[in-house]
Design a protein that fits this description.
Elements (H helix, E strand, L loop, with lengths): L1 H28 L7 H16 L1 E5 L7 E5 L3 E6 L6 H13 L3 E5 L2 E14 L4 E14 L4 E6 L15 H19 L1 H13 L4 H11 L20 H20 L6 E2 L5 E2 L21 H4 L2 E5 L2 E4 L10 E2 L3 E4 L8 H5 L6 E4 L8 E4 L11 H5 L5 E3 L4
Antiparallel strand pairs: 1-2, 3-7, 4-5, 5-6, 6-7, 8-9, 10-11, 11-12, 12-13, 13-16, 14-15
Helix pairs in contact: 1-2, 4-5, 5-6
Length: 388
């Protein structure tokens, strides 16, 4: 940072000396004083840079590589733990969703958004003013975890001139999100283990340190109830394994369960709830040859579902002629808007890592095979099979 700053100051000082020298020449030769456009541009540009104090921090281990730090507009916190597996990333995202935050994931990033409202009565206009504001915190996972937030200018949300202390409130809410991440998710478990190992602390001391570090956490978890269990007795472990294995064997040997009739029409053997929560988002496009590689594992309101299915995190490919890979779908809604005969309607899929609703081809038989939905789908999760 000092090198960048010194270089800017050197260029700036050099430019000013050149301007001063031209001014001295003007006084001696009594010629009209003219500042070249190039020197004027450099002087203004460097002055602006020095005033705004734009710095960069180089990081060799962070995934992002370079973080632009614009004074107090952006906060950066580095957590000395690793968060690399898809299961752990999904677990953190799901835990924050349960607390009421808006959560989205992309690649190795988790985006957590908190929204709040501001209201005030305008005496001049004699009306109540309202504003919807938000702050987003980004978790960059990897060998170390970086937590970043950037406060957008108030003008981003509209002309809300009447709002007071916006930056302070946004900063406070961002720190509330960060404290909640530290105290209520897997990140906190790993940070406690790090404190125990690095600082030679007991579990209670490590928890106390974490609590002191995160006073703004929303609905803080009571971690002093006991350390996270990492080992179990052999007898309990074996009995659990045997019971699980026995139940799985019974499920395999048992005949298929009777199909449930649903008010929406057709038969349903697929559930949208379950224990499959350790999955991450799947990238497109859909496999056009999936019918030769997968098998039908059930139906939902009469629509075929092609495995693998492990709800809610893995839902497979749905449909016969109008097919959608639910594990790739991000619920942008382009297919629903493009379909001229209303084949699709939204189906809630809470807990799915890609999106919590999917375009369900409930009127698949009405498809006219115009290919509109397949052509407009951004993640390419739609495949149309023409009967003819």
């Amino acid at each position: 940072m000092s090198l960048i700053s010194s270089n800017r100051q050197f260029v700036y000082v050099k430019c000013l000396r050149s301007i001063r020298r031209d001014h001295q020449d003007k006084e001696l030769n009594r010629k009209p004083f003219r500042l070249s456009p190039l020197k004027l541009f450099v002087a203004i540009a460097m002055s602006t840079l020095l005033t705004d104090r734009v710095w960069v921090m180089l990081s060799e281990v962070a995934k992002r590589g370079v973080y632009p730090l614009h004074a107090s507009r952006l906060g950066l916190y580095r957590i000395p733990i690793d968060l690399t597996s898809n299961a752990e990333i999904t677990q953190v995202a799901n835990e924050m969703k349960k607390l009421g935050f808006s959560v989205d994931t992309y690649a190795d990033r988790i985006y957590i958004t908190y929204k709040w409202n501001e209201e005030e009565f305008d005496q001049l206009e004699q009306q109540r003013l309202k504003a919807n504001l938000s702050i987003m915190v980004e978790i960059v996972t990897g060998e170390v975890v970086d937590i970043i937030y950037q406060i957008k200018p108030l003008e981003y949300f509209g002309d809300h001139y009447w709002i007071k202390n916006y930056r302070t409130k946004a900063d406070q809410n961002a720190k509330m999100i960060i404290d909640t991440i530290l105290l209520n998710t897997k990140v906190g478990d790993k940070l406690i283990a790090h404190y125990q190992k690095a600082n030679k602390l007991s579990f209670e001391e490590a928890v106390k340190k974490l609590q002191d570090l995160s006073p703004l956490a929303k609905n803080p978890k009571d971690r002093l109830a006991g350390p996270p269990s990492t080992e179990t007795s052999p007898q309990i472990s074996e009995s659990k394994v045997q019971s699980v294995a026995g139940s799985e064997q019974k499920q395999l040997e048992a005949p298929p369960s009777p199909q449930m009739s649903v008010a929406g029409g057709g038969n349903t053997t697929i559930s949208l709830t379950g224990d499959g929560t350790s999955y991450s988002k799947v990238e497109g496009p859909i496999d056009p040859d999936f019918k030769s590689k997968r098998s039908v594992v059930g139906t939902f309101q009469g629509i075929k579902v092609w495995g693998e299915v492990d709800a809610p995190g893995r839902l497979g490919i749905w449909g016969s002629e109008v097919t959608v890979d639910f594990d790739i779908c991000v619920a942008d809604g382009a297919c629903i808007e493009a379909c001229p005969v209303n084949v699709y309607e939204w189906l809630d899929t809470p807990g799915h890592p890609s999106s919590e609703k999917k375009p369900f081809m409930i009127r698949e038989k009405d498809c006219i095979f115009c290919m509109a939905c397949e052509n407009v789908c951004p993640p390419q999760c739609v495949k149309i099979f023409n009967k003819g």
